[in-house]
Amino acid sequence: MPHKYLLKEFEDFARSAENAESLMQHVSKRIHIHIPRYNWIGFYLVSKKDPGTLVLGPHAGSFTPTPKISWGQGLCGAAASTGSTVVSDNVAQDPRYIQASDLVRSQISVPVLTVGKIVGAFNVESYFLAAFQKQVERDFVEGCAKIVGRCLEKTAIPDLVRV
């Protein structure tokens, strides 16, 4: 896997992370810096105040994201509501895509789970078509989501609900 060094770094960071939020911020920033074809990286978390809403969590990227998404809305909401990875090779042809930038061409959204419960979605967007078509890219993004999910099992974010 081409990004094994990042996954190892994230696992090491998770062991000493003060909380899951710091891990999510670290993951977002490091991927944004080290994988130029990934232009926006971030987390949407299930809101404790409104479990039908995903709220923007730690992120890094070149545009302002949507601050909240209804459960099932968009590719992030689809990943969270189905518990499955959602990939769009061409967001312009995907009616589920919520446009935050007209430069985005493809997106992957992966559910974040703790103890089998969905707590959010990890989202990566690219200015290139089909950036997540290869299984190795999907495995990397899913691996990041798993590391964050395990960290969330040990630490809590106050505004987080598990559904």
How is this structure best summarized?
The protein is an alpha+beta fold. The protein has four helices and six strands, in the order H-H-E-E-E-H-E-E-E-H. Helix content is 35%, strand content 25%.
End-to-end CA span: 31 Å
Beta strand %: 25-35%
What is the residue-averaged pLDDT? 91
Radius of gyration: 14 Å
Give the CATH superfamily. GAF domain
**CATH fold-level topology:** Beta-Lactamase
Specify the number of helices. 4
Largest sheet report:
6 strands, antiparallel
**How many domains make up the 3D coordinates?**
1
Broad CATH class = Alpha Beta
Broad structural category: alpha+beta
Percentage of helical residues?
A: 25-40%
Overall number of strands: 6
Sheet with most strands: strand arrangement? 3-2-1-6-5-4
Which architecture would the CATH scheme give at its second level? 2-Layer Sandwich
Q: Spans with pLDDT under 50 lasting ≥5 residues?
A: none
Order of helices and strands: HHEEEHEEEH
Structural account:
This protein is an alpha+beta fold. It has a single domain (4-154), classed as GAF domain (Beta-Lactamase, 2-Layer Sandwich). The chain has four helices and six strands. It has helices at residues 4-16, 20-34, 74-82, 135-154, and strands at residues 40-46, 53-61, 68-70, 86-88, 106-114, 117-126. A six-stranded antiparallel β-sheet has the order 3-2-1-6-5-4, with helices on both faces. Strand 1 and strand 2 form a beta hairpin. Helix 1 packs antiparallel against helix 2. The longest helix has 20 residues, at 135-154. It starts with a helix and ends in a 9-residue tail after the last helix.
